[in-house]
Amino acid sequence: MRLWRLLFIGFTISLAIALSAFAQNLSDAEVEKRAQEVGRSLRCVVCQGESIEESGADLAADMRKLVRRRIRAGDSNEQVMAYMRARYGDYVLLKPPVQKNTYILWFSPFLALILAFVVYIVKVRQRPTLKAPETLSPKEQEKLARLLEAGNRDKEDGT
């Protein structure tokens, strides 16, 4: 009876190992698909604005090979990302996580927008308002009429 138990346990363990090895034998198409998915999330540390899938830099090619090697070894996409992050830091992620050291990166656009709005409001309030033109007093109106009349006479005489 004990022998059968040992044989059953041995068979179960060997079956689990075989299934695990079979599950890790991904086809090249599956590896390529997953590698491209992971590669689109990783930044080329040379080009900085491109993913490793888009970049033509030698380092990006090495990073692509490393991603494919890790996937063939059986790592999940998350494990590959964690490995690359541990190796190159958060900078390698095209979409950095929201954490204490990236708050400025994530929230500075909103702060800049709020600051611009406050500056605009302050400037609008400080802008001088246009006053309505003052009307002339009767004495000033009389003087203006004389000047205009004298100017018209000079034009008539000069013509």
Structural description of this entry:
This protein has 159 residues and is mostly helical. Helices cover 67% and strands 0% of the residues. It is built from six helices and no strands. It has helices at 2-24, 28-39, 58-72, 77-88, 103-126, 138-158. The longest helix is centred in the last third of the chain and has 24 residues, at 103-126.
How are the secondary structure elements laid out?
Elements: H1 2-24, H2 28-39, H3 58-72, H4 77-88, H5 103-126, H6 138-158
Binned, the helix content reads 55-70%
Q: Assign an overall shape.
A: rod-shaped
Overall mean pLDDT: 82
CATH topology of one domain: Helicase, Ruva Protein, domain 3
Q: H/E series, N to C?
A: HHHHHH
CATH class of one domain: Mainly Alpha
Question: Uncertain segments of ≥5 residues (pLDDT<50)?
Answer: none
End-to-end Cα distance, whole Å, is 139 Å
Structural class: mainly alpha
